[in-house]
Structures are given as structure tokens and as C-alpha cells.
Amino acid sequence: MLKLETPIDQIPRIQLTYRKKLQKLGIKTLKDLFYHIPSRYYDFSNIVPINKALLGEIVTVQGTILEIENTRTWKKRMVLTEAIVEDESGTIKAIWFNQPYLIRNIRKGTRVSLSGKVDFAYDNTFLSNPAYEVMGNKKELTHTAGLVAVYPETAGVSSRWFRYIIKAFFSLVAFKDFLPETIQTTYKLLPLPAAIKNVHFPRSSEDYENARNRLSFEELFLLQFFILRERLHLKKEPSIAIPTDIPLIKKFVTSLSFTLTNAQRLAIWEILRDMAKQEPMNRLLEGDVGSGKTIVATIAALHAKHARYQTAFMAPTEILAEQHFNELSKILAGEGVTIGLLTGSTGKISYQGSATKKQKRKDVLEGTANGEIDILIGTHALIQKKVTFKNVALVIVDEQHRFGVDQRARLSRPQTKKSVLPHLLSMTATPIPRTLALTIYGDLDISLLNEMPKGRKEIITRIVPPAKRKDTYQFIAKEIKAGRQIFIICPLIEESEKLEVTAAAKEYERLSHTIFQGYRLGLLHGRIKPKEKERIMRDFKEKNIDILVSTSVVEVGIDIPNATVMLIEGAERFGLSQLYQFRGRVGRGEYQSYCLLFTDSASRQTHARLKALVEAKNGFELAERDLKIRGPGEIYGTRQSGLPDIAMKSLGNLNLVKQTREAAGKLLEKDPELTSYPLLQEKLNQFKKTIHLE
Ligand code: ADP
Ligand code: MG
Questions:
Q1: What is the β-pairing status of strands 173-174 and 347-351?
Q2: Which residues pair with 378 in a beta bridge?
Q3: CA distance 547 to 522
Q4: Which end of the chain is more exposed for a tag (fewer CB within 10 A), N or C?
């Protein structure tokens, strides 16, 4: 018997050329082969006598080959293989195109099964390019007469070959079912061998649905178990319990120039309650752009400072880090808080808000190590470089939704050197659909800012067809004359950043020399050095630029209250969530703002999708839609997650996600180390090695 883990390389029966091709498809072991799941099935189950093969239908006929020969079409471009098949009811012709080798496989006199469409030419019906199979005395057919698996497009490996090889090896492999029996019975799952068999060779649609369900279940179950167990381990790590100082918080909150929304109050309360515990907080603060996440995080940091602990505050870019530095310095002026900013090359420290002094990186590092700095703000450099904190109790991560379980530890451990783990608060404006929140992000508690501060003007969103381009430019010119500023986002070019940069540069040139001649334009893209980028953003912020032409790099949290128009070129190329994020860049000040979606696409689907953005009241709705339209992999960059396709697909299935979470939770309670389930334990260890969630 072969093991599922047997490498394809060690199976001489599979030809070398195929082994190489399989390698290309990422199929390295027998397991990978068996888990190469069909993308769909042909329905060849309509088996009929030849005289009942009706034009236009897909049928299976079974009979004997009377004649078979190759001919050439009159243009001599194509080889036709023509055969006559006979059963008790009659005869029919079958024609194959450009497969001359068939006459070696299907010989005169053999009994065959043929499945395909009945077509019509030269006064006769015939089977066009049917799938074929020599019947001999086979009981079960593989390629015809039933549901027949079709595999995802493959590097020169045909679906026929996959069916053949999978069937051949199926009986040679010892399948060991690692899912505990109780789980199988509770959730009515097929045993593993049956699931594998039925997913490749189903007899009914029920067969393959059950099979898929079982295979998705096991992958999601492993993921859930893994995540829940990590979470359990994490909770056992000591952290710093900071008792909640209610009067302090109240005093600070009343000193603010605005009233907090109820959602903000609740989030603050949830965060402080977590921080009062000995176990490390692991909370995600989720809220639309402009919902006021920064103030919530600031209060958490202030709270830590009063207990004499430090906070590390990470932003995804230097511009944002600086923005946070300025904002926190302002908000916390008069609170006796010292704030540091650490970027790639420079450092800054602000004491008491207003007295901002330019300083060296070295000073900031020193101030962080000796505890003089209460809040250190920076990019990821904060954890990657050798920054040591005296006593950090809180780590805040802004706009970084792509991190999961295994990064959790890395986020804070290097800098403490002590055995305590700081509390972690991450913030994102990218809404996470429920199924993902329960899986990939399953180790996080979530606080939701589902309410906007009062008095915000709604952003007017319009889909602009090509014919309206001129009018739109005129409108923009009017806005600029009124003193406002404009974002123009160039289309996303996924294949190449270089092309994207070129496109943006061209658009910048075009606009500067034609319609917006005489205005001040700026250009921003991914190839511009961080320092230069920052200079451009600062110019824009200080109103030295009227129109900022940019690629998607402008996406996250930049605050330009004077900008009122977000014009997006090639809007159909962006995901809804991303468009939503772009739109959030405007409408941050007192002026009426606009989001203009340019598209050349006339496709109805595109318009329906963009309309969703026009109508959407919140980002969560959009994220759910995105998930349905594009699939989780593309949105969350989990393509490289190592999660099998079948698991990725089932991330959209809330019911399955809930079931697997429940099953994993129960087992975790009973036997966290899986000592009574050695097979599952082994499986989980393998699983751990293959996944790397971002
Ligand atoms: P985001 O959630 O996008 O990070 P910010 O924290 O940057 O949002 O807040 C956007 C703006 O709203 C900031 O200028 C902030 O001072 C302001 N703000 C935050 N909370 C409130 C509130 N409750 N009422 C009015 N304005 C608020
Ligand atoms: Mg923000």
C-alpha cells in the first residue's frame, strides 16, 4: 500500500514528463493528486439507444465500432477521425477533430461508450467530438456515461489523464481518516475514502456535494483548530494588567472638542476591560474611514501612560506615521505625554504637544529604551529594527488587516525581552466579512465602530460614462477655483507595477499639458522614493498642489480635509472595498465632496458592481459582496496562504465555517494536545508547516 504522503517523484508508474507537469501544478504527493479537486463535471448520464440520440442533446451511446478511419478535410488543414457505431437500435457516426491517434485506441469491433453532443451535418446526425471509452468487461466507466470530472485548466495535463491516474491509484492507497469519528457522525460527514472517490467519480450531484462538504470541512476544521489553539496558548501568556482608571478617562473625554459616538465609547470600554486583564488583549478595531479610530487608540495609549507604561503605535507608511504623530501630539497636548516618531532615517520627539523638536533617530531610540518616551510612533521598523522599550504594555497597529495568527507573536515579542506579552490593538477600515472574521482572523476579538460622528456630509458618488468626461473636468476646474483639491486615481494594472507607473505618469503629463494646464499637479506612484512621496503628500496637504494624480498607493488613511473630489479612472478594475477606501479620502472636511467613478466598460455586471458602491451605506455590505464576487483569496491576499483551494472557497460558506469552529472548539476543550488522536495530531503538524497566513 502507498501512503498519501508518498511523493509523486517516487512513483515510477507515473511518467517522468507527467511528474514534471504535476510539479508545475503544485502536485507533489499522492495527497495533492487526490485533493486536486474538479472544477466542474460533465453530465453524461443520459444513456440512450442510438436511435433515440436526439439532435442538440448531450447523450451517451454504447455499441460496437463498425468502421473507423482518418480523413482529411478538403482544405487539408484538419484530420477527421470518423467512426460508425452500432447498437441494437441503429447506427450513428462519431467524428473527432485532430486526434488521429484515436484509431489506435478505438479499433474496429470493440465495444465503446461515447458521450457527447448530437450535431448535424450533410443530412445526418453525428456525435461531435465525443468522450470515448473502450468498455471491454469494465463494470465502472471513467470518462463517459455519468458525471465526469473536469479539472481546473492545467499545464498540459488533460482531465482524462487525471481521471485515469486518480482511479488507478485510488485502490493502491491506504487512506487514514484523521477526523475523529464523533465529529464525522455529528456533522454527517462522509468517511475520507468515500469523499475522495465521490469527488472525482460521483454518481450523482448529491455525491459530489457531500464529498466537497467533507473535504472542505476537514481543511477548515484544521484551520480553526490551529487558530483556536494558538489563541488559547496566547491567553496563557502573562501580560500587564492595567486597572481601568475611570475618572482619568472621563476627564480626558470631556476635554475633547467633540462628543464621542456611542460606538467609540463602547469600543473604548471593551479595550480598557481587556487591558485590565492579565492575559494579552488581541483586539481588532474595525470602522469605516472617518469613524474615529484614532481617538479610541489614543485613549488606550493615554491609559497605559498613566499606569507608567509605554505604547508602540505602528502605521503602514511613513506619511501616516507622521500624521499620527502630529495628531496625537495635538490631542494629547497638556496631558504630559512624550511622543516619539521613528522613521527610516529620522526621529522626532514632541513634549507637551506644541513644543515639537526635530531630533536624531539616536535620541528617539534612547528615549524609548530609558522610558522617557511614552508613545513611540513609526512604521514596521518599530518591530523589525532593534528598538528596545523600557516597558511596553500596548501595541497599536493601524491599517494592517493582513496579519494573522503566526504574526501575532512576532508583533510584540522582540522588543520586550521580558516574558510578558503586550496588549495588541489593531485597527482597520477594511471590513472583514463574518466568515473570515471567524476563520483567518479567528484569534481576534472585534470592536466595531458602526456609527459615524455626527454632522458628516454624505459623499456624492456618481458613475461617469466617457461622454461626460469633459463636463466632469469643467466641474473639477470649478472646485479648484473655489480653493478645493482633487485626487485622480489611475487604473489598477495588476500584472505590472511598472506599467501602472507609466500609465500614471502619462496621465499626469496629459492633464498637465491639456485640460489642466496652468494648474498645479502632483504625481504619486509606487516607484517614487518614500522621502519624495512624503514631500509630495506634504505639498498636497499644505495646498501647494491642486490635483494629485496617483496610483493606488494613496489608499490608506491620509487626511486631506480640503480635498473634495476623488476621481477614479478605470473604476471597474478595483475591488469594491478598495473603491470604498478611496472614497474615504474625501469628505473629511466641511465641504460637500464627490466620488466620481470613470469607466469605459459597458458591461452590465460592472455597472451593477459600481452601483453597489453608489448605494452602499457601509463598508461591511461591500466586503460581503466583494467576497461573493471575487473570492476570499483575491481580496485578502491569501493566495499564497498555503490554504488549499477548496478551503479558500469554503471560506465564503458561513454555515460550514460555524460548524467547523464549533467542532474545533469542542475538541480543543476535550483534548487540546490531541493525545488521543494521533492521526489528527500528525495532520495538524503538517498543516502548520504548509499554511502561512498573512
Ligand atoms: P479613522 O477611523 O478613519 O482613522 P480618524 O480617527 O482619523 O478616523 O477620525 C477622523 C476625524 O474625525 C478626525 O479629525 C477626528 O478628530 C474626528 N473625530 C473622531 N471622533 C469624532 C467624534 N466623535 N465627533 C466628531 N469628530 C470626531
Ligand atoms: Mg485612521
A1: unpaired
A2: 314, 342
A3: 6
A4: N
Q: Is the CB of 314 under 6 A from ligand 1?
A: no
Beta bridge partners of 68: 83
Enter the DSSP assignment of 641.
Answer: G
124-134 and 111-121 beta bridge pairing: antiparallel
Residues near 468 by beta carbon (within 8 Å), at least 6 away in sequence: none
Domain ranges for the chain: 46-144, 246-276+292-428, 460-617
Is 332 touching ligand 1 by the criterion CB < 6 Å?
Answer: no
Residues with CB under 5 A from ligand 2 (ion): 557
Give, for 195, the enclosing helix (H) or strand (E): helix 192-200
**Where does 275-336 show beta strands of DSSP type E?**
282-287, 310-314
Q: Quick check: 553 pLDDT over 50?
A: yes
Q: What span, in angstroms and rounded, lies between the C-alpha atoms of 149 and 163? A: 7
Average pLDDT over residues 390-415: 64
- Record the pTM: 0.69
668 pLDDT above the threshold of 50: yes
- Residue 508 CB neighbour total at 10 angstroms: 22
CA distances from residue 612 to 3, 465, 582 in whole angstroms, order as listed: 49, 16, 15
Check if CATH label 3.40.50.300 holds for domain 460-617: yes
Instruction: Note the pLDDT tens digit of each residue in 588-640.
Output: 888 899 999 998 887 887 888 888 888 876 777 777 676 666 555 444 443 34
Domain 46-144 = CATH 2.40.50.140: yes
Distance CA 551, CA 269 (A): 38
Superfamily of domain 246-276+292-428: P-loop containing nucleotide triphosphate hydrolases (3.40.50.300)
pLDDT of residue 509: 93
Tell whether the model's pLDDT for residue 333 goes beyond 50: yes
How does pLDDT run across 218-260, given as a tens digit for each residue? 888 988 888 888 778 877 888 899 999 999 999 999 999 999 9
Atom 15 in ligand 1: which residue has the minimum CA distance?
Answer: 292
The 460-464 sheet, strands edge to edge: 460-464, 594-598, 563-568, 485-489, 547-550, 521-524
Helices (H), 361-496: 361-370, 381-384, 405-416, 434-437, 469-481
Q: Which of 268, 264, 291, 262 has the alpha carbon at shortest distance from 580?
A: 291
Tell me the DSSP string of 437-450. Answer: HTTTTTT-EEEEE-
Ligand 1 close to Cβ of residue 294 (< 6 A): yes
454: number of CA atoms within 13 Å, CB side?
A: 5
| Three-class SS state of 79 | strand
CA 331 to ligand 1: nearest atom: 16
246-276+292-428 matches 460-617 in fold: yes
Q: Is the minimum distance from the CB of 293 to ligand 1 under 6 angstroms?
A: yes
The answer to whether residues 106 and 116 touch, using CB atoms and an 8 Å cutoff, is no
